[in-house]
Design a protein that fits this description.
It is a single chain. The protein is an alpha/beta fold. It has a single domain, classed as Gyrase A, domain 2, CATH 3.30.1360. It contains 3 helices and 8 strands. A 4-stranded mixed β-sheet has the order 1-4-5-6. A 4-stranded mixed β-sheet has the order 2-3-8-7. A hairpin with a 3-residue loop joins strand 2 and strand 3. Helix 2 runs antiparallel to helix 3. The termini are far apart.
Length: 131
């Protein structure tokens, strides 16, 4: 536990009812609206971390960083400013309400430059939509 606390300041546990699908340049969390809503609120917690702090999410390392660092190119790492993690959670909730596509990936909103490892959601109890 001590080593975890030294490296990671937060750990997000994904409910077993959410399927995690890894692809070469993205990861997608698949589940029902109610499950994805809870997940999006967990993502919001990352926005409370300070610059340079890390969060563990399954195989992923999420990093809060106000500047682009070489960490953005590390395998299974996602680096964003703190406020961007909050916006990601809000965009996921927009998709839940039908205001964005299903599935939805954060790179699709164009808020920041494309992140090398994109994070997305797919809501199983909503119909798929197209861009």
């Amino acid at each position: 536990m001590g080593l975890f606390r030294q490296k990671y300041k937060l750990k997000i546990n994904v409910p077993s009812s959410i399927e995690i699908k890894y692809f070469e340049n993205k990861v997608k969390f698949v589940g029902a609206k109610s499950e994805i809503l809870v997940f999006s609120e967990e993502i919001r917690k990352v926005s409370k971390l300070k610059d340079g702090q890390l969060c563990k999410l399954d195989k992923l390392t999420l990093k809060v960083s106000d500047f682009i660092t070489p960490d953005q190119d590390r395998k299974l790492w996602v680096e964003l400013p703190g406020h961007a993690w909050n916006i990601m959670a809000s965009k996921f909730q927009d998709a839940l309400e039908g205001f964005d596509t299903n599935p939805f990936y954060f790179n699709d909103c164009g808020y920041l430059d494309r992140i090398p490892l994109d994070i997305g959601i797919e809501i199983t109890d909503l119909p798929p939509t197209e861009n």
